[in-house]
Specification:
The complex is a heterodimer of chains A (about 160) and B (about 400).
Chain A (H helix, E strand, L loop, with lengths): L1 H7 L5 H5 L14 E2 L4 H10 L4 E5 L5 E6 H8 L11 H8 L3 H4 L1 E2 L3 E3 L4 H11 L3 E6 L2 E7 H13 L1
Parallel strand pairs in A: 1-2, 5-6
Antiparallel strand pairs in A: 2-3, 3-4, 6-7
Chain B lengths: L1 H22 L4 H15 L6 H22 L2 H32 L4 H12 L4 H9 L6 H28 L7 H33 L7 H19 L4 H12 L8 H26 L2 H6 L1 H25 L4 H10 L5 H13 L4 H36 L1
Classes of the chains: A alpha/beta (about 160), B mainly alpha (about 400).
Chain lengths: ~160, ~400
């Protein structure tokens, strides 16, 4: 199977990926969270949509952080988690009542000028599933592993 | 070969004892110190250079990880106002108790100063579980405690640096020499701030594209070692450098990728920190504790009561009632990680004797054992009194 894939050229597509700009692949219509949104609102979001993470933005639509399922689960399970998880930061997070207080500040971002090869490399090397795409500090979109796989498949078909 | 066996035994016993203690409801640091005590009695002495170097790395990574994973500069700025007075009160009183006890027992001036520093830190992690169990983490004393504990440690680490730097002078430093210490410290912080805000973010943008394996993880470890080393170049102690190095990385996204944080945490809490705690246990001299009987008892009583009374007064000033002030005072009593780093530095630099070292380790153990129970009583006392009133 792998041999067939190599023969079909799936593994020689880095040049093709380098020619694709991330802004052409990213999802532009992103579900975001405002930094002042309440925790309850976040729970509603996780119930309504099925994304793993949500970018947090400020009043000027600048990306200020990210909230993922791990954080939400950590907050929900804080009182039942082992003592080793009772760190200062986790305690502060469990007490916060808005998105700003629980988000991971300074999320990993990539410029909207980057190409797909850079994004794929970043995701694989550092086990990141989704990367926020920014332009002038503002959130421009999100690109996920699934988007890249779909794009590779599309290029191959063409 | 012998060293490999020593390392294996230390890690094995630290993890087994740590797990047993965790299951008994206390923090694993107690188990790790106990593992060291057992090893110290039966197998090992604290004189192994390699083991001592590993323990030093453990102290550096303990503080680096504290800065790297636990410090949120923005959040601290926001919470600092309310916690300032209680923190200053509990640190000042605990410091005074430590210093005066040292002077009362005819310890040298520097050793007494160090006693004060060793009395000043707080480990909030010990009582978080109790606060959660009683739904008090989000209470007023709970939230102030959380911030205050971090400030206690930061103040403790800075005071440690001052005392350790003073030791390098043969006599008490003059005003100009003290000014030089302040300039060195400010210079180091400014340099690290510049690196953290300007250089490291740019550097990590390149590092994450490197082809070598684990480039980010390796560079995060390098930042820890670099900061520790540069602190020494500036005439400060390595541990303060490591702490500041960790804190400045909190603003660098690529250095804080979850995957990298897990690896740094694994290196620190999985390997190096347990070795450090076990080494503390190995270094405890029970003969010295016994011979310093009354001194040891007073160290325990005054270190705990200094925090309790200082915390009580400080929170009364900002308007807490008696019950909440008592809860706060007890909450800031326990000591653990940073305290042990301060101690090990004091011993290594030669400021404190075996008696003082061992007495303070015993104080740490007692503080961890009694604080959660006392806190539980204080909260129950408040609840009972409230119920009687209604």
């Amino acid at each position: 199977m792998i041999k067939e894939k190599i023969r079909d050229g799936y593994f020689h597509m880095t040049d093709d990926l380098s020619n694709v700009n991330v802004k052409n692949v990213m999802v532009k219509d992103v579900v975001t969270v405002h930094e002042d949104d309440s925790i309850e609102k976040l729970f509603d979001l996780f119930e309504k949509y099925h994304y793993n993470s949500y970018p947090v933005v400020d009043n000027e639509a600048k990306l200020v952080g990210i909230i993922d399922q791990d954080i939400i689960l950590e907050i929900l399970m804080f009182d039942r988690s082992p003592r080793t998880k009772h760190t200062h930061e986790a305690a502060i997070r469990s007490l916060s009542d808005n998105a700003k207080g629980i988000m991971i500040p300074h999320p990993i971002t990539i410029s909207s000028d980057a190409n797909l090869h850079d994004v794929a490399d970043l995701m694989l090397k550092h086990r990141v599933n989704r990367v926020c795409v920014v332009k002038d500090g503002k959130l421009a979109g999100i690109v996920s592993k699934r988007d890249i796989i779909n794009e590779v498949y599309k290029i191959k078909k063409v | 070969m012998e060293f490999i066996l020593q390392l294996l035994l230390i890690l094995l016993l630290a993890k087994v004892f740590g797990e047993a203690i965790e299951r008994l409801g206390f923090p694993s640091v107690l188990g790790e110190i106990s593992a060291g005590v057992v090893l110290g009695i039966f197998f090992l002495g604290p004189d192994s250079d390699v083991l001592s170097s590993f323990a030093e790395l453990g102290a550096i990574f303990l503080l680096f990880t504290a800065g790297y994973k636990e410090i949120n500069l923005k959040e601290m700025r926001a919470a600092s106002k309310i916690a300032l007075i209680p923190t200053l009160c509990d640190v000042t009183l605990a410091y005074s108790f430590g210093f005066l006890l040292g002077r009362a027992f005819n310890l040298g001036f520097i050793e007494s100063l160090f006693m004060g520093v060793a009395f000043s830190t707080t480990s909030i992690g010990v009582v978080v579980k109790t606060l959660i169990d009683f739904n008090y983490l989000s209470s007023r004393p709970g939230t102030v405690m959380l911030t205050s504990a971090i400030f206690d440690d930061i103040i403790g680490i800075f005071m440690l640096t001052v005392v350790v730097t003073i030791v390098t002078f043969d006599k008490l430093p003059s005003g100009i020499q003290l000014l030089m210490i302040a300039i060195k410290m400010a210079g180091f912080i400014l340099m690290m701030g510049f690196l953290g805000y300007k250089v490291f973010p740019m550097l990590f943008n390149y590092i994450h594209r490197m082809h070598v394996k684990e480039s980010i993880f390796a560079f995060v470890v390098m930042v820890a070692l670099f900061s520790a080393y540069m602190a020494e170049v500036f005439g400060l102690h390595a541990v303060i450098g490591a702490f500041i190095g960790g804190a400045i990385l909190s603003n660098v996204p690529f250095a804080k990728i979850e995957d990298v944080q897990r690896k740094v945490s694994g290196l620190s809490y999985g390997i190096l920190v347990p070795i450090f705690f076990a080494f503390i246990g190995i270094s405890v001299d029970f003969g010295a504790v016994k011979s310093a009987g009354l001194f040891t008892v007073l160290v325990i009583v005054l270190a705990l009561s200094g925090k309790l009374i200082g915390g009580f007064i400080g929170t009364k000033i900002i308007g807490f009632d008696h019950y909440d002030s008592l809860i706060f005072g007890i909450g800031v009593m326990p000591r653990a990680g940073v305290e042990l780093v301060v101690l090990s530095v004091g011993k290594k630099v030669g400021i404190i004797t075996d008696e003082v070292f061992s007495a303070i380790v015993l104080m740490v153990v007692v503080s961890i054992l009694v604080s959660p129970t006392l806190l539980k009583f204080a909260i129950e006392f408040k609840e009972r009194s409230k119920a009687q009133l209604t």
